[in-house]
Amino acid sequence: MTEEWLFDQSLSKASSKYLVFQVGHTLFDKGNKNKRFITDTWLYVDSSKRELYEYDVATDSLTQWKK
Questions:
Q1: Arithmetic mean of pLDDT, 10-34
Q2: pTM
Q3: Which of 15, 30, 36, 53 is at a distance of 20 to 30 A from 45, taking alpha carbons?
Protein backbone atom coordinates (compact mmCIF):
# COMPACT_ATOMS: atom_id res chain seq x y z
CA MET A 1 0.00 0.00 0.00
CA THR A 2 1.38 3.40 -1.01
CA GLU A 3 0.46 6.73 0.56
CA GLU A 4 -0.99 9.20 -1.92
CA TRP A 5 -1.79 12.92 -1.71
CA LEU A 6 -4.73 14.27 -3.70
CA PHE A 7 -5.38 17.99 -4.02
CA ASP A 8 -8.92 18.63 -2.82
CA GLN A 9 -9.52 22.40 -2.89
CA SER A 10 -8.37 25.95 -2.10
CA LEU A 11 -10.16 27.42 0.88
CA SER A 12 -10.21 30.95 2.31
CA LYS A 13 -11.15 31.42 5.96
CA ALA A 14 -10.80 34.72 7.86
CA SER A 15 -7.18 35.77 7.30
CA SER A 16 -5.89 32.39 6.06
CA LYS A 17 -5.81 30.71 2.68
CA TYR A 18 -5.50 26.93 2.72
CA LEU A 19 -4.61 24.29 0.19
CA VAL A 20 -6.50 21.15 1.23
CA PHE A 21 -5.17 17.67 0.49
CA GLN A 22 -6.64 14.22 1.06
CA VAL A 23 -3.97 11.79 2.22
CA GLY A 24 -4.77 8.12 1.76
CA HIS A 25 -4.32 5.07 -0.40
CA THR A 26 -5.89 3.32 -3.38
CA LEU A 27 -7.67 0.04 -2.79
CA PHE A 28 -8.70 -2.63 -5.31
CA ASP A 29 -10.98 -5.63 -5.02
CA LYS A 30 -9.72 -9.07 -6.03
CA GLY A 31 -8.38 -9.07 -9.57
CA ASN A 32 -7.55 -5.34 -9.39
CA LYS A 33 -11.20 -4.39 -9.96
CA ASN A 34 -13.28 -1.58 -8.42
CA LYS A 35 -10.44 0.86 -7.79
CA ARG A 36 -11.23 3.42 -5.07
CA PHE A 37 -9.36 5.99 -3.03
CA ILE A 38 -9.57 5.69 0.77
CA THR A 39 -8.96 8.96 2.62
CA ASP A 40 -7.00 8.46 5.86
CA THR A 41 -6.74 12.15 6.79
CA TRP A 42 -7.06 15.67 5.43
CA LEU A 43 -4.15 18.11 5.58
CA TYR A 44 -4.46 21.88 5.30
CA VAL A 45 -1.49 23.96 4.20
CA ASP A 46 -1.73 27.62 5.24
CA SER A 47 -0.04 29.19 2.22
CA SER A 48 0.53 32.61 3.81
CA LYS A 49 1.95 31.37 7.16
CA ARG A 50 3.53 28.27 5.61
CA GLU A 51 2.10 26.04 8.34
CA LEU A 52 0.62 22.55 8.17
CA TYR A 53 -2.59 21.45 9.91
CA GLU A 54 -4.43 18.16 10.20
CA TYR A 55 -8.22 18.14 10.17
CA ASP A 56 -9.80 16.36 13.14
CA VAL A 57 -13.16 14.96 12.00
CA ALA A 58 -14.42 14.24 15.55
CA THR A 59 -14.00 17.85 16.74
CA ASP A 60 -14.37 19.55 13.33
CA SER A 61 -11.17 21.49 13.97
CA LEU A 62 -7.63 21.94 12.71
CA THR A 63 -4.60 20.89 14.74
CA GLN A 64 -1.21 22.37 13.83
CA TRP A 65 1.59 19.92 13.11
CA LYS A 66 4.62 20.70 15.24
CA LYS A 67 8.21 20.26 14.11
A1: 90
A2: 0.81
A3: 36
